[in-house]
């Protein structure tokens, strides 16, 4: 039979694994108590001893012979067993109907009848499912694909196989039910679990076998030897006519022998069976219908093949229309057979015994055959998954054997024991007394089981376990919820699963929920160690499960009330025992209460154990005394309440008895099976029957006054017993409370350090148990001493610092670090003692924390303020603590100063020169690395690189020959202007570009609007262009103009200037401004009047420079002509005055010797010559040119003869050529003015000739004509 495909097994998480050191391994219970907070959360844990801990195997192998248990794997699993029980009931039902149950196939899978039946019942039953057409829904729930009409097949199979059984279960009288089978259906072989429990297998049976669940032929019932079955061909007969029918092929029903009861009485069921046996009936008229009590219609009268009762076919409900074929059971027999009470499930014992050698051979052979590989090569993961597959399948049976619960007392423990048969070598003698020797662990001083007088196998005496592959131990908790420890001596691993004790009730509720049928017939199923459930199933229902693989040489410990189970990976040998520590005592008492509620017997009396410990109070360990006192307090309080209760009920008789002298069966409560020790109640009507005080009313129906209380101790004796324990534990308890109050800081006021020393001394003198509390107190005291010493050293150091440095901060290398100070202050807060220096130290720490907080804030800032950094450094001067932030703060201060200098320099680009940048970079290189510094350095270095490149580039542009054009320089200048730095070459370039632009603008403005530029302006522009390293396109044209002007001036100079003349061309062409400046003047009064005449003209045109300046500034030729006319007017006036002055000196005088004339400034003498223009006289000897004059020719003195006098026709081309040059210059204006004067003079002369005026003045013309050559 198949089920819906199960998910592959997923291993639960691993439990903790501990590897103690030799020091930790020395004390088992101390180490277990140490790991308990961790391990009890998983329920189980594994301990690997130190590698060198290898006890010898001391078991008597030759004498060890055991009978193992038989385990059929799929019968172990709770849900699988429920299905098997259901199928057995179905098979029996149909067998009693004379039919053989065969399981149909659906979609090539064997139909799960249990699931089908369960789903139909959940949906409301067969009629409701048919009425509401839910068969498709049920098929989907069973895992079949929708849309294949599987629902109709399920309905057919249900109606054919399960529906008659359910009708019968509901109490309906069934007609002859027939079961038609398909040829493809496989016959089901029932397990018959209850009836097989006491059957011993034959010696020849194969123990480890793997077989298919479905077989075509197998006898369900077997005939006991010597038993003769009824040879009647058919019990179903027609009265008066006997029809022989062939025996149908069916599953035979066997009857299993039942063990006789202890008293030889028959059970109720056996009585019923015997009463049903009737004497043979040979006469037909003795058969009467059990419904109508009438023997008529004999041909319709049916005989039951079970009890021989008769029934009319028409009296049955519903009536039968035909005589059924095969065996037939009446409704009464059917109800009796199917309604037999179920028998509790248990393991069978094997039919043979094994030695270790024979069992090992069988186990190894089984595993190697099963996996078809050597046993040591089978992975543990594969065995684990296969195990959980096998226990969950119904189709496949695998049977194994397990040598469990073998008493070590009989065959010897695997550990060496004193006075044992095993001879221990001297080097291994320490294993005899080792605490991890399982023979020693239950009776160690720290174990409370040592106070139980009886030797309890499995609890005080170890049990041995010999396992094979797949042999398992089912879910269970230890008796009395105690600890257990298991050691695997050798062999293949043992796989464990465990749940923490806190989840015990949850695990129980989940198993009851998932397999309620098992718990209905066997409420204490989990106490029988016969049921397992897949860990994945439990985990899916919220139960935390953990696993581990226990290898040889490893311990596994289970904690109180921790459910655990597992299986063996192969042939191995393990040993286990229980133990109980002080922390278990309240748990053990709760377990007794739980047992009382379940009506489960106790292995030992918890009250007796407690009282035995109390009787030894004088020598008891104080820590154990405290635990016993707490347990006794609860025990005495409950006993007082119970005795008071039964007293109120009317129980007045009492008697003191020694319960410890009575066997356990005589002092067990007949109601809850609790072992009575402190008290019990009996009644004379029920000798040998006792109840505990909780179940007084369940003893008998006699009046309460007839009951008798039997007690071990009076209440006064109990109080005295508890007082003795209290006296022993009081000092320790008081000390314990004080220490706890100190360590847990429950008091309002801290204790002094001296009191802590007193408590430590008290623990040592009174030999209190060395536990974590004592160690913690010692540690606290030592730390407090260290704190006090540190405080004193700190204060002393501060005083020395002030003394040496006069109140300032000393660079003392022994300064307290911040961590030390913080640790010191934390110890002040954490220790239960006060230090007088605490306020000062806390204030110092507060200031240090504030300093560090501010430091962290500033240090985390990319660019902290230098002022804040300096302030923080100033604060550190008042902290006598080694501050690790100080070097960083100093570094950041240097960085901040540098960054500030960089920022200031960058904010004034006009002053940020290359030298400044190089200096800042050199300073930054010496700073500690920081992102802000690196960024600023990168920016500064980039700026320096760019600046240097542009400086070099600009210098090349400026010094380039030929010069670059303005566009190139201007473009370069546009790029340079974005560089925020002072770059001399770039500034020079800017100045050059500015000058070039200005020069071009001026050059363009000179000729703007047809204006004729001045020569001075052109000369100035050309001169300025020489200082501008730019290619100026108009410059060549201007230079050409100037060259033309120079050529013109040279031509004009050749025309007008005398050879070796000292006069310039402008002096020659321009009217004279210095007439008379070269002549000697007399000191006469007349001579004194001359300067007054000369000073009359405007002082602005007193010199040639003034005239030249005014001409250069004149805007056009007309204004220049006006200026020259003004100068000419002034010249004429001065000249006339000079002539008058010179002529007045030549008048006859009284003394001529005083007159100075000529260039020699001597008195007139000899031949003299007079200048025609200025009328000055000269010695002919002084004037060489005067001797060459012809008569009538006008002579001019050297001062008046300033230039040549070219003809006008030679002068006019000069003016024309100047006009073509289109450049104004003073000489040109003067030439133009000269020509205009000449032309005007010619015009006047022509006019005078025309008018006859010339003739009138011809005589005087020669004297007055003046030709100006300037």
TrEMBL record:
Residues 184-204 are annotated as: Disordered. Residues 195-204 have a biased composition (Polar residues). Residues 286-336, 1153-1203 form the PHD-type domain. One of its GO terms (biological process) is regulation of DNA-templated transcription. InterPro entries: ARID_dom, JmjC_dom, JmjN, KDM5_C-hel, KDM5B_ARID, Lys_sp_deMease-like_dom, Zinc_finger_PHD-type_CS, Znf_C5HC2. Its EC number is 1.14.11.67. It is an enzyme of class 1 (oxidoreductase). One of its GO terms (molecular function) is zinc ion binding. It is found in: Nucleus. Its cofactor is Fe(2+). Residues 430-596 form the JmjC domain. Residues 80-170 form the ARID domain. GO terms for cellular component: chromatin; nucleoplasm. Residues 184-194 have a biased composition (Basic and acidic residues). It catalyses: N(6),N(6),N(6)-trimethyl-L-lysyl(4)-[histone H3] + 3 2-oxoglutarate + 3 O2 = L-lysyl(4)-[histone H3] + 3 formaldehyde + 3 succinate + 3 CO2. Keywords: Chromatin regulator, Dioxygenase, Iron, Metal-binding, Nucleus, Oxidoreductase, Repeat, Zinc, Zinc-finger. Belongs to the JARID1 histone demethylase family. This is [histone H3]-trimethyl-L-lysine(4) demethylase. It comes from Solea senegalensis (Senegalese sole).
